[in-house]
Amino acid sequence: MVTSARIPARISIGISTATLTGMITGMINGIAARFALPRIMQLLAAAMLALLLTGCIEGPDQSGVTQVVQQRLTQALGADAVEITRLRRLGSGPLDASADGLKRRIVYYNAVLTMARDLDFSSWDTLNVAALTNLLGATKRGIDGLKQDGNSAGDQVYVRGSVSFEKGAEGWTPVDVFHPEVGVASTGPAGAEESRRIIEQINALLTKPGKDSQERKRIITEVLDGAYDDITLRLDRLERALLIAGGSPDGEYARVAQLLADELTAEGTLSSAAQSSGSKENLELLRTGKVDIALVQNNVAAQALLGAEPFAVLGPHYTLNALASLFPEPLHVIVAADSQITSVQDLTGKRVDIGDPGSGSYLNAVALLAAAGIELTDLGAIHETGLAGGLNLLNNGEADAVIATIGAPARTLQRAAAQGRIRLLPLSAELREMLTREGAGYVPILLPAATYPGQREPVATVAVTAVLAANESLPKADVDRVLTALFDRIDFVAAGSAAGSQITPETAEIGLTIPLHPAAIAYYGRFSLSPSEEPAVPAAFRQE
C-alpha cells in the first residue's frame, strides 16, 4: 500500500556530480599509486566504483527520508509524541519491481528519536513494539532504548531502520514493506545406531510402492507427530522439569513459553516449553498432569473450569487457576484487499477459514459467527487450516475470509498487509456489545492505526486475553519463581516478543475468567493491591 506523502521527482541527492567525480578520482589514484595498477585496470575500477557509489545514493536524499519517517511517527503516535533529533542517510539498495513494473529501492538510515512525552509501548491500548519496529523499517534488533516499563519524556531511542520507495511519474513515493526476522539455521542432532535403524524402517514404509501411497504417508506422519510429542513430554517429566505448554512454533504463545522456560532454567529451575495446537489442547494437558503450566485464552479457560463444550466429556476442572493475565489477543476478520465484503454478516454463503479445531481461535470464530446470526451450515465452505493456511487459501482465491484470534501485529498478517493483499473488517458496535455483554471473556478493543502496514485508521474489534494457567496444586515456590521471572527478570522488549512486551503486573488481573491461584494472590499483594481493588483498565478495553 502506498502512503499519501510524495517526494518531488527532481530530488537532490546531496552530492554534486563534480564532487562525486572528485571523490572517485581521488580514491582510484590512491589505489593505483599503491598497487601500480595498469591504466586499463584503473579505468575498469573507476567505472565499477562509480556505478557502486551512484547506486548507493540513488533515491530520495536525507531530507526526503526524514520527512517520511517523521510523517509516519506523527500519523501513528500524534504530532507531540516523538521528535527526530538526528537522522543520517546511509545508502540504498535495489528491491524487486512493483506489480506495475515500477522501480523500487530501499534506503537505510540511522536515527536518534527523542520522546516528547511519556510513551509506554507495553500498554494494551497503544502501538506496541512490534508495530513500531515495522513502521520504522527496522528489525527487532534494530531499535535500542525502548523500555519494558515505558519511556519518559526526554528518553532517546536509537534506530537502525529503512524506508522503501518506488519511482513513478510523480517521483519517489514511500511504500509499506514487511521486514522479516533474521533467522539462524539449526542442525538436527546426530542419531545413534538404533535411531538410524528406526529411521530406515520408517523410510522404507514411506517409499514402499503400491496404491494408497499418499494415505500411507499421511497415517505415518500423523502417528510420528503424536509419538514425538508424547516422547518429549515423558522425557521432560522423567527429568522432573517444570513443563510449560505454549502453542504453534511460529506463535507468541510458544515464544513466551520458551523465554519463560529459558529464564527459569538459567535461575536453577529445570524447565521446558512444549509446543501444542493451542488453548484446548493445553488445558487437556494441564488437566491430565502432562504439563505444569499452560498459556490459554481466558474464554476457553472459563469453559474448561465449568466443563462446558468442548470439555463436557471431561467435566468441570474446578482446580484450574490463573497465575496472570498476560496480553490481549484481538480477533481478526481478514478479507482480500479488493473484496466486496464489508461486514461479518456478509460472510453468509462465503468460504471461511475458522482455524484449527483444537484452538481457542476456532471457538472464537464460531462465537463471532453465531453473534452475527450465522451458523456454520450457512457458510459456503468451511476451512480449518489456521491463519497461515487460511491466508494461502485467501491469496489463491479458494477462501473469501479468514477469522483468527492472535496477538497483534501478527507477522504473517504484516507481510500480507505490506503486499497490499488484505484488509481487516471492523466489527460493528452492536456485534461487539453482543460478544462482550455475555461475560465470556471478550473485551472491546481498537487496533491502533499503523498496527499493520498500510492501516490508516483504527479497527474496532474484540479481544480475549492470554492467561498463564496452572492447577491449584502447583507449589507456592514454583508460582513465585514463575511470576518473578515473568515480571522482574525477562526483558521481553529486548527479546523481541511483541506480546511479551505487554506483560506487566498492572494488567495481570484484567480479563480473568478463572480464580487466581492462592500463591498468585499473595504475590500480587506485595504490590499493595487490596483484594477488592480493581486494576486499572486500559482505555481501549473500556465500554464506549
SSE arrangement:
Blueprint: H1 17-35, H2 39-57, H3 62-77, E1 82-95, E2 103-115, H4 129-135, E3 143-144, E4 156-168, E5 171-175, H5 193-207, H6 213-238, E6 242-245, H7 252-266, E7 271-274, H8 279-287, E8 293-297, H9 298-306, E9 320-336, E10 351-353, H10 360-371, E11 381-383, H11 387-395, E12 401-405, H12 411-418, E13 422-424, H13 429-436, E14 443-447, E15 459-471, H14 476-489, H15 492-495, H16 518-525
Parallel strand pairs: 6-7, 6-8, 10-11, 10-12
Antiparallel strand pairs: 1-2, 2-4, 3-4, 4-5, 8-15, 9-12, 9-13, 9-15, 14-15
Helix pairs in contact: 1-2, 5-6, 14-16
Structural features, described:
- This protein is an alpha+beta fold.
- The protein folds into three domains: 1-180, no CATH class; 197-327 and 465-541, Periplasmic binding protein-like II (D-Maltodextrin-Binding Protein, domain 2, 3-Layer(aba) Sandwich); 336-460, Periplasmic binding protein-like II (D-Maltodextrin-Binding Protein, domain 2, 3-Layer(aba) Sandwich).
- The protein is built from 16 helices and 15 strands.
- It has helices at 17-35, 39-57, 62-77, 129-135, 193-207, 213-238, 252-266, 279-287, 298-306, 360-371, 387-395, 411-418, 429-436, 476-489, 492-495, 518-525, and strands spanning 82-95, 103-115, 143-144, 156-168, 171-175, 242-245, 271-274, 293-297, 320-336, 351-353, 381-383, 401-405, 422-424, 443-447, 459-471.
- The strands form two sheets. Strands 6, 7, 8, 9, 10, 11, 12, 13, 14 and 15 form a ten-stranded mixed sheet that branches.
- Strand 4 and strand 5 form a beta hairpin.
- The longest helix is centred in the middle third of the chain and has 26 residues, at 213-238.
- The protein is globular.
- The model is unreliable at 1-21, 50-56, 182-192 and 529-544 (pLDDT under 50).
